[in-house]
Amino acid sequence: MAVTSTETRIESLAEVAEHLDVPDGTRVEIVDGSIVVSLTAFGRDAKIVWLLENALRPALPNGALDVRRVTVEIARTGERYVPGLVVLPESEIQNDERLYSAEACLLAVEVTSPSNPGNDRVQKLRGYARAGVPLYLLVDAVERTVSLFGDPVNGVYVAHATVPYGGKIRIPEPFDVTIDTAEFP
Fold it and tell me: In this structure, are strands 107-111 and 135-140 parallel, antiparallel, or unpaired?
C-alpha cells in the first residue's frame, strides 16, 4: 500500500509529539497539522474541570468513566487532543494507556485558553464532529460562555446551545443532567 505525503506527515507529527521532552505540567497536542505544547489546566481552568467532573459523575451512563489527562486521536486526520475532561466507555480504558480513539468518546470537554481559543472554538470543534463524538462541551473562559454541540452528521454538529456564565445548560441522554455554571470562575 502506498503512503501519501499527508499520511507520512501525520505519522511524522505523531512520532515527534510522542518523543518530545516537555516539562511536567504541559500537554502536547496535534491541532490542524501543527504540534501545540501548552500548559495543562491549572487555577481557573482546573476549577472549571473539577466542577464539571463533579456535576457529571452522578449522571455518567452505566459502564462509562470520566477521565482527565489523556490524549484522544482523531483517526481520520491524525490530530491529537488533550481535553480537559473526556467520558469513555470503561471497556476502552485498558492498562495505563494514555492514547484513546476520539471515536470512542461519549463526551469531550474543552476549556479555552486565552493564548489560542481558536483551537477549541474551530479546529477541535471540527475534529470532534468529524470523529463522531456525540457531545462536545466547550467552556469558553475568554468569552465566559458554555456551549454544547451535539448530533454530529457528516462531520458537522447540527445541534448547538450556548449560555453565559451563570446560566444552566442541559446535557442530554445518556447523561440527562443540567449543569449550573453559576460557580464558574
Answer: parallel
Identify the pLDDT of residue 3.
45
pTM (2 d.p.): 0.85
According to the model, what pLDDT value does residue 1 have?
40
Whether residue 161 is contained in a domain is answered as yes
Burial (CB count <10 Å: 0-12, 13-18, 19+), residue 162: middle
Q: Which residues contact 39 (CB under 8 A, 6 or more apart)?
A: 25, 26, 27
Q: How far is CA 32 from CA 92, 95, 101, 166, in A?
A: 25, 29, 17, 32
- Is the residue at 5 inside a domain? no
Q: For residue 137, is it within any domain?
A: yes
Cell numbers standing for residue 142: 475568554
First to last CA, the chain: 51
